[in-house]
Amino acid sequence: MTFSAESGSVQELLDKSAITEVIYSVAHAMDARDWDLFATCYSSEAEGDYVNANVVGREAIIAGTKAFLEPLEATQHLVGNLRVTVAGDTATTHATFIAQHARAEATGSGQFILGGTYQDALRRTDEGWKIIRRQIRGIWSDGDSSVLTIPVS
Q1: How many CB atoms lie within 10 A of CB 49?
Q2: What's the pTM?
Q3: Contacts of 21 (CB under 8 A, 6+ apart)
Q4: Which domains, from first to last, does the chain contain?
């Protein structure tokens, strides 16, 4: 494949790179508890389709993610196999993840790992690419499930 500005391929590569950065930034922000960075990844009207909840709006997504993650001592979200499809000012992504969760007050080992997929829809905005819809699906898990089932205060 030959890349040239005339064919639009260079712009597509730039878009794919920017979109990849958004997806990786979400994972980094969750692990660093950097809620300002996390907010920059989502549009104000974004929707979240999670295993146990549907959430509408960036602020609701941030609040739900904070409530889920902040009681944990540490997390590590590894994102891979990222595929990006760009169609003008919209895009979709599919990625796999492995997420390690650690919680000292769990009833077992305090370690829980989850593997699954992220399916994202994004839109180009004046501020860059933003997630407008994220679907998270767990595929497998291992470890102490009480890490995630202890009530969040």
Answers
A1: 13
A2: 0.90
A3: none
A4: 9-149 (3.10.450.50)
